[in-house]
Amino acid sequence: MTIAPPSPSAPGARDAPAAPLLSAQGLEVAFPGRRGAATARAVDGVDLDIMPGEIVALVGESGCGKTTLARSLLGLVAPTGGRVAFGGEPLDYSGRALKAYRKRVQLVLQDPSGSLNPRHTVYDAVAEGLRIHGYTGDEGEAVSGALARAGLRPPERFLLRYPHELSGGQRQRVVIAGALVLEPELIVADEPVASLDASVRGEILALLLRLREELGLSALVVTHDLGLAWNIADRVAVMYLGRIVETGDVEQILTAPRHPYTRALLSVLPEAEGEPVVLTGEPPDPSKVPSGCRFHVRCQILASGEAGRAGVADDCRTKELPVLEGGNRTQVACHWAAALPQAEVPAAP
Q: What secondary structure letter does DSSP report for 199?
């Protein structure tokens, strides 16, 4: 492997801020409606940076736009506004440039059974990327090395097996090996443990952490589970209806959340104290984004009168919030949280 995390002892390493490996600026993805229906704003203005060697968790309910955002960052969906940059260079959507980019940024899907061709052996599944990208080295050595790094040891035991002969955790490791074989700099993992038994999830999360430590890999982990973010991420970005609504250091966000939506997501974790917050209704239609704060129609703070007591109820309903910056400082897009000093925001349930 040629990828390594920056040495902390290098001259100036502590002083010079690192540049983002992957950066989205003002990113928008819209899908036109059928037969004159309104355009659906799936991603509606997102700034997001991922630093070298960093694991960022992108968290939100189903339908909030997080998978569309991830696909746009991978170049699978062209943005309708804004831009994506990798290594400081804007992403080029021409076929040859995208092929080179996807060698450096790999996708790991949530369902290993759907990701693997049942007629292909483990060897062929892992070697597929090498063949697509015209690898000229020792293919067998590269495949065996990727399987070993993914925790399938000795790799010779697995090379000629088929997916149906493996456990769910082993299949997910094969998918991860298929990504690692191209020596990427960044992995985008979409719900990487959602389809696995609880007993196996910890092993896969530990694997991702080990790969970051050993190879300097960066990762964007897309999930609906804030508990997973707590266990694996350095930083968390909470997404709602196409926008990042709260972002920052994972411990800061998950121990002292300021946005009502983040607080609601945390309240349903098994270890949470107090009663869970039950949000009314479904996330709004992305073709009909509400005025003001896009969460206000479901917000427990507004419904309880707390926003009114803070003097921001009208702002919640009518005043749009700005797009949060993509950096790593703690930020929140909430009129109520902004109206109160951080020390006065009530503790999360």
A: H
How confident is the model over 57-94, as pLDDT tens digits?
Answer: 999 998 899 999 999 999 999 999 999 999 999 999 98
**pLDDT value of position 35:** 74
Phi, psi of 65 (to 5 degrees): 105, 5
What is the CATH superfamily name and number for domain 22-28+39-233? P-loop containing nucleotide triphosphate hydrolases (3.40.50.300)
pLDDT for 1 beyond 60: no
User: In the predicted model, is pLDDT for residue 36 greater than 90?
Assistant: no
What is the separation, in whole angstroms, between the first and last Cα of the chain? Answer: 45
> Which residues contact residue 22 at a Cβ distance below 8 angstroms, ignoring those fewer than 6 apart?
49, 50, 73, 84, 85, 86, 105, 186, 218, 220
- 113-143 pLDDT, tens per residue? 788 999 999 999 999 999 999 999 999 999 9
Q: How many helices (H) and strands (E) does the chain have?
A: 14, 11
**Residues 6 or more apart whose Cβ sits within 8 Å of residue 152:** 122, 158, 170, 173, 174, 177
Which segments within 191-291 are labelled E, that is strand? 218-223, 235-240, 243-249
85-91 LR contacts (CB < 8 Å, sep 24+)? 85/20, 85/22, 85/23, 85/24, 85/25, 86/21, 86/22, 86/23, 87/21, 88/19, 88/20
- Could you give the 3-state DSSP secondary structure of residue 117? coil
Kindly write down the DSSP assignment for every residue of 240-257, as one continuous string.
ETTEEEEEEEHHHHHHS-
Cβ atoms within 10 Å of 290's Cβ, excluding its own: 16
* Residue indicated by tokens 């928008």: 28
Contacts of 137 (CB under 8 A, 6+ apart): none
Q: Where are the domains of the chain?
A: 22-28+39-233, 257-344
Q: DSSP character for 223?
A: E
Count CB neighbours of 299 within 10 A.
24
Q: Measure the CA–CA gap between 219 and 57, rounded to whole angstroms.
A: 8
